[in-house]
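Before a colleague's protein record goes any further, I have to sign it off. Thanks in advance; the entry in question is below:
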Amino acid sequence: MTTKISLRRSLSHSLRWLLALVAITISVFPVLWMLRLSLSPADEAVLDGIQLLPSSLDWGNYARAWESADLGHAMLNGALVTGSILIIQIITVIPAGYAFAKLRFRGRDAAFAVILACLLVPTQATALPLYLGIGSIGLANTFAALVLPFMTSAIGIFMLRQHMITIPDSLLEAAKADGLGTLRTLVHVVVPSSMPTIAAFAVLSVFTHWNDYLWPLLVARDPSLYTPPLALSIFQQAETGTAYGELAAAAMLVTLPSVVLFIVAQRKFVTGIAGGELPG
């Protein structure tokens, strides 16, 4: 009986590892293939069958893609847009999350229900009304148009509110007894306790807006405002059918910052999503 149970557990463990390996392979293979293509000579970009490694490495694909697609300027724009959005969102979602979690005011539950309803609305559904609104006030084709529609985040408010609910009221009462007002309690007690969730939201925000294509496509007509996905799209339209290696190299360069960010912030991201503990 014991042997059967042990064998069953071993088979179950092996099956889980096998499924995990299959999932990892399916997820990673497109990235590895893009890397392989970005390093391949032009005559090996399209081959019959699968050749995992190129016969020689052509690093010039990266230099040509960087120059032809003007990725340096586009990535600088992307960093400025993404950073500006993140700073403004952090300033707005933290007080909002705290208010919904710990403050008592009329209409709080109804307002939070509206926040939850916003999570159900796809961003594509609001793109056209936002575009018309931005155009009506003369901000289309400006840096402000890339930032202003994203000054707050429903998912950020929801994440912070859900975490801040778990903060003991006794901790806030102790802060009040020490003479801290609402703002100082938020800054010196609540924010440090919520850092894992804030970090997780920051990663989500950066991923979302660094990779956003639809909104810059609508409002950024001037090449000086192109963000990385938009610059990559324009480059693809110009080079379709002739420079797959350069296209793959450009895609790798645009993807690299997101990958590096996730590797650096992985632990905080997982802790924030899972629900971080209060520091002792």
Summary: The two ends are 46 Å apart (CA to CA). Residues 2-38 form the longest helix (37 residues). The chain is about 75% helix and 0% strand.
